[in-house]
Specification:
- The complex is a heterotrimer of chains A (378), B (388) and C (167).
- With 378 residues, chain A is an alpha/beta fold.
- Helices cover 36% and strands 19% of the residues of chain A.
- Chain C is an alpha+beta fold and 167 residues long.
- Chain C is globular.
- Classes of the chains: A alpha/beta (378), B alpha/beta (388), C alpha+beta (167).
Amino acid sequence: MDRVGIIGIAQTKYARYNPASHAELAYEVTVRALEDAGLTIEDIDNTVTVCNDFWDGRTISCMTITEATGSHRVPTTNVEGDGTYGALMGLMHLLSGIHEIALVVAQSKVSEGIPSVITNAMFDPVYERVLGLDAINSAALQMRSYMSKYGISEEQCARVSVKNHKNAKANPYAHLPMDITVDDVLKSRVLADPIKLLDTSPISDGACAIIMARERTAKKRHARPIWIRGVGHCTDLYHLGDRDLTEAPALALAAKKAYKMAGIHNPLKQIDVAEVYDAFSYMELMWIESLGFCEPGHAGEIVDSGMTEMNGALPVNPSGGVLAAHAVQVAGLARIAEVVLQLRGEAASRQVEGARVGLAHGIEGACGQGHCVFILEK
Amino acid sequence: MKRLVGIVGVGQTHHKSRNADCNGQELISIAVKRALEDAELTIADIDAIVIGNMDHFESINCADMWSVDGSGSYMKPIMKVTTGGTTGSAIGHAGFYHVASGLFDTVLVIGWEQNSESDTTAAISTCFDPITEREYSAGAIGPLAAQYIAYMSKYGATEEDAALVSVRDHNNAALYNPYAHLRQIINVEDVMKSPYISYPIKLLDMCPRTDGACAVIFASEKKAKRITKTPAWIIGVGDCHILVHLADGIGLPNLPSLENAARQAYRMAGINDPFNQIDVAELYIPASTAGVSWMEALGLCEEGGGPRLIRSGITNMGGKLPINPSGGVLATNPIGATGLLRIGEAALQVMGKAEKKQVEGAKVALATGFGGCFWSDVTVLSSSPSLE
Amino acid sequence: MEERKEASEALSIKCVADMPYNYHAGFYYSRFLKELRDNKRIIGVKCSKCHKVYVPPRIVCRDCFLKMEEFVPVSDTGTLLAFTITNFSYIDTTTGEPKRIPFTAAFIRLDGADSNIVHCLDETDERNIRAGMRVRAVFSNNRTGDYFHDIEYFSIMRRQNEERQSP
């Protein structure tokens, strides 16, 4: 794969409610990403927007941010899925050789709608929707299955939440930086057993933009491009009952592909930092298993050992992850932005020392049905 | 390094106003199976899938995830692209970029819609700004109608000019396209007598609401040449999504986004004389009026020359540059698929597989997509990898 | 024969999806709506570089890609660029009720503005409407910060238009 480098990033502060309109949010990150890259809008020759009709409450939701992202000036498209998929589309635009510099912008104002109604709409209209399934109670099914199969405890899941909210204190963009204990998590309100409030990500308004360029241009225009070395995406079956919810084979396959491209044979040794999509505390455990950081069922021990803490062998979610800030559709792109900060050495008090290779991950659909994995390198 | 990308298979359902005997996944699977059969491939040969529809028509969130049973994406990479009416052409371009990037060799692109499941105009109306535009913007029909008022006022075009477009497309569908939704032979008088739905657009001037699906398989040069002797090479692509506020588009009836997108695609393809270099065109004409006012944007006539072009008969079957041998959007409109059908039909033309719709000797075809706030996508396809 | 029988037995499940949204106006629309409500005035925003005035106001100038900050009043009178009389009903997604027809959508360039707005006209007979006519906003006396309510409709300025037509 030709080399493509990320040369600009920007995120808004994630918050429960941001009074700016979609266009105003998108313009903010577009301008800041351009500043970060040292470019002007004239330098961008193609864009990808990431907008979702349900979350935005309108069809052709990407229409709101067309002008604010400069997408009216150049070839553009809209990916409706996690921001990582949008980044992949931008990457493909560049690898085709037809374009040089891509801008990818994801935005979400989830405070405008009702998340349970919107996520309920993911489920089969004939068999599943009427049950009232939504993102939280479907995740509860998965958490219960996973814990039962491997004997993972609620405490071990809670430890992820404690770690990530604490990490978020060093992240100026995070929605929920907090000092909490395992006990706080276990005592927090049950939303859908066994998922408790503090096992759950918030719902945040926010936006993120990244700018990527083909190698020659990236090197010419920026002091520290962060290279995309591998990418993979894959999806599991749709109906919850068709899947084994205790496993994420689609993530394993997506990771396998990304690792192969990036020359990673031993993820534990070769990856220095990982930002994974922990929409719920237990998900971080499941995802690190499928990413090959440990054997299936052993992620609980990994968390207990401190391996994924800031000072551990492979820090996971130094930014606080999705548990600390969850702008839907944006969060995967934010994972990429955070890894870029890490590899540039610009992550300030959340910096993982000497990070050279990082992993960014996004999910799509219920219970992590689809996955997209990026491997980035300094 | 620019890689060649070719279309090697096309499949579509028999389009209907209501496909009552299939659910969405089943509808998709019919188109997918037909495309695979057309290319003599199996789902195992597919490396990645791109799918598109407009969410609110079927009220399904994350439709890419939902589609797995029908799209064959189990343990495969799939992503969803949606850009309104241009979805069909946007997914076509996404499929093109999947292969052109070198990351995937054989990519299945699926566009689909079950418009019978909801109130189409109501759903489309939600694209307009709820605070300043939605109240009086009647879906696609209202804005298109108003745009033609602006064109008629400026250039003296008439409703009869538009009726000729309707007659051409409906009759093509009836005579040549067994997959089309509406297959009725009509004349200008029929159109002029049909009731106004949004002045000056009458019932027979407007596209239907259709249930249907289309699947197109894109392949890298090496794979394409092994799969078929006659791939349809994609030699030009262009996109222009130019506006946000509907009201601004009304005042630009010659569709500048189409001119912009065509310029990009023509430049890539090496087309500087579209009228003589293009053999057949499958154009996204959602209302007959657009078939008059948008022709100049493609460089097919002078400014304001739409009526002259249509009245000349040049764009009829048997004419110098047939437009919409399939019957186009006026005959068939499953919105998420519509733009992809234009690409698929154009591909069938240059592959020599268009059967009754075939324009003899067609080597270069043009396909356009339209939607959103007067946005356009353009694709140029050819039976040879370059025009030289 | 068999196939047709099966198709007619296929079921469908009716579902009325109630999806409440609270659309945020953002800073620019909020200013616009408050000005309508409080001062019965239509405002746009002006680009500091190209001096185009956009109504309704928005953050970025499309051509210059600059953030705009200067709000300026525009006239309540303008020119009708185009119109259409919609004569088919569909569900209004805000109320869930069928739209009342016919209604005339009007696309208007207000004096002082460089972009267009959409609203409605108080005329539904196409024989009495022509692109190019002069129109004026009719405001509600009971304004709430809702664009489509605070301006009730646009009225064709009959006398002005007749004067323009006479030789």
